[in-house]
Structure formats: C-alpha cells, structure tokens
Amino acid sequence: MVVSTATAAATAAVLVRVMPKFAVLYEARANTGIDRATIINTVAKAVPEPHKVDLNNPEKTIVVEIVKTICLIGVVEKYKEFSKYNLRQLTSRKQ
Fold first, then answer.
1. Domain spans of the chain?
2. What is the pLDDT of residues 31-68, one digit of tens each?
C-alpha cells in the first residue's frame, strides 16, 4: 500500500520539474510496528529515475506520516526553508 501511494504521489508532484532532488521524511505516532528505514527506502525507490536523493538540499520533500494504522503521504517544496511548515517557528525567526 505504501509503495503504490508513494508512486502516485511522486508521479503527481515530484515529476513537475525536470530532475528534482528530493528527500524522504518519516514520522510515526502511536505505531511501532513499521521499520523507519524500510519505509524510507521503499518510498525513495518508488520515485522514478532520473530523480536523485539529496538529504542536504532537496528541492522537494516527500513526507510520510503514520498515525496508528493510517499512512499519510505528501510532497512539499522548501520544507527546511519554511521551518517544516510550522507557523510558530516560521513567524518567530529573527530577520
């Protein structure tokens, strides 16, 4: 299920630009039965070539969140630059 959802998300969003670099972010809440490394590797392998993994400076971030038995996958841009999309952190930064 994770592979098919990741493939669909990658096709819909990551492929918008030519050869974007991406990272995979994994978070789990109330679930200890799924291995973090397995999910990250599975999602990264689902993204077709010629896209490359770049953990230091990704153009897109594939966010995988598991809450109990529900898996949420999204693709976002500028994840680090926008303070992980946390409004409190984003607005409290010193300019």
1. 2-92
2. 888 899 999 999 998 888 888 999 999 989 999 999 99
Residue type, 69: T
The two tokens of residue 67 are: 């809450």
Is 45 in a helix, a strand, or coil?
helix
> Is 60 exposed, middle or buried (CB count within 10 Å of its CB: 0-12, 13-18, 19+)?
buried
The reported pTM is 0.76
The CATH code of domain 2-92 reads 3.30.2300.10
Side-chain half-sphere of 43: how many Cα atoms within 13 Å? Answer: 27
